[in-house]
Amino acid sequence: MAGDEPEEVRETVTLPEQFADESVIVPPERKLTGALESDSRLIEAVFSGGENQALSRREITVSGKTAAIFFLEKLAGLDTVSRNLIGPISRMGKLSLETIRAGLTAGEVRVSGDLNGGIKQLLQGSSLVLLEGETRFLIARTGAAPYRAVSEAIHERAVRGPQEGFTEDLETNLALVQKRLRTHRFAYENLEVGSLSRTRIAILSVNGITNPRLVAEVKRRIQSLKIAHLSDSGMLEQLIEDKWWHPYPQILVTERPDRIAAGLAEGKIAVLVDGSYQALLMPATLISLLHAAEDYNVRWPYGLFMRLVRILAAFIMVFLPSLYIVANLYEPELLPTDLLFSLVAIKQYSPLPTIVEVILIELVFEIMREAAHRGPRNVVAPLIIVIGVVLGLVAVFTHLINPVLLLVILLTAIAAFVMPEFSVGLSFRLTRYFYILMAFFSGLIGIVIGVFIHLHLLVKQKSFGVPMFAPIAPFTKRSKDIVLMSPVWLREKRPDFLDPGQILRQPEDSRGWLKEQSSEPMAPELPEGGKSND
Q: Transmembrane region positions (predicted)?
C-alpha cells in the first residue's frame, strides 16, 4: 500500500482541464503527517513524481533528526539555497521549527500549515523546509529569478522628467511606484491568474482617495478569470476591458512609473503584471489617452502647446486621406484653382483609381512600419529608409502614384509617431480606413455620417463605469485638465468623474510663499554705491 501512495496522490492533486478553483493544488484531506518520507512523496507527487527535474530536494540530518528542503532551482537558485538555507541549517545544534526560523537571517522566513499556500510560494521561488515529526513547515523566501535592470522607458521617452521605466520584475516595479508615493495610504493587493503560469498580479490604489467600488470591480474581474496562461499585461487588458470590439483602448497602458503614480494620486487604479514592463491604468478616457507625462513636467504654456500639436496630429492622422479623396472625387471646388489645375495635370498620368492609390500606399506604409518593429534593430532602420526612398522615386517617376497623395500619406505616417502610446496610434490608424471608405462611397456627407457614428460609439462607451468621453460628455467644470490645461497651482480638485474619496488635491493657496511675501516688510533699498548707511 505504501508503494501505491504516490500514484494515488498524483491522481488527486493534478487537475487536468479543471479551472473551477485554481487555488486548490492539494485536496484538503491530504495533510502533512509528520512522517518525512510520506510528506516528501506528497509534495513530489504534485510535480508529477520524483522524476520531475524542475523540483529539487535536499536532506540534512543533525543529531539524528532530518530536514528536507524543497525548491525550484531555476527560480530559487542552488547557490542562494545553499548559502541561506543548507549551510546555516547544517551548522545548527538541534533542529526544530523555531530554532531554524530564528537561525535563518536572510530573507523572510515563516511557519505555515497550509500546504496549498506553501506550494504556491514554492512556485514563486520560495523554499519549503519540512522537518521530521512536524505537521507544519517553514517557507523561506529565496527567489532569485533573473530579470532586467531598471532602464530608460523604451517607447515613452521624455525630454524633461524621470527617465526610469518599468522592468519585467513585479517587486522592482512596485518599488518604483512606492518610492514616488511615500504615504501610509498607498496599498496593493496580490492576486494570481493562470492555472499553469500562476502569474502574480498587483492591484494598486490609495486608501481614502481611490473609490472602493472601483477597487472592488477591478478585483472582481481579475478574480473571475479562468485561463491556463497569462504572459503579459496586454492579455489581461483584453480579458477585463468592457467591450472587446470597441476601436479605442479602454485601459491606459504605460511603462512609466511616474505616470502610474500620478494616476493613483488622482484616484485611478493601476495593475502590474509580473513578467510585463507595461502597467495598466484605469479607468481611461479619450482625453487621457492623448495626454503625455511630459505635459506636467514643463511650464503650462509649453505643455498646452505640445498637447494642441498632439491633437492636431490626431486629426491629420484620421481625416487627411479621406479629405484628399473628397477633394479629388466629390468636392474639387474646395481646392484653390492653381492647386486644382496641378492635381488634374498630375492625375492624368496615373493609371490607378484614387481609392486604389490611397489604400495601396497606406498598406505599403503599414508593411514598412511593421518591418521596422519586427526586424533587427541595427539593420532594419537604414534599410527601411533606403527602400522607402527608392519606392517613392520609382512610383513618382513612373507616374504610378500621385506625388501629392504620397505627401498626404507621409504626413499621416509622421503624425502617428506623435501619439503618446502605441495602442492609441493603432486605434487612430484603424479609424482612418473607416473614414477613407466613407469618403469614397459618400464624399463629404460620408465623413459627416462617420463622425456621428464615431462620436456615438465614444459617448456610449464606458471604462469601468466611467464614460470614455468624460469630462466633455457628461460635461464637468471641476476638471481643469481636459484639452486646455491650467497651471499646476490652479489644479486644486481631482476629476469628479472618478468619484474620489477626497476631491481636493491641494488647497487653493498652494503657493504659500505668496502669502508670506505679502505679509513680510519689504527689504530696504540700498543707496547708490551698494552700501547701507547703517
A: 308-330, 350-367, 379-398, 404-422, 434-459
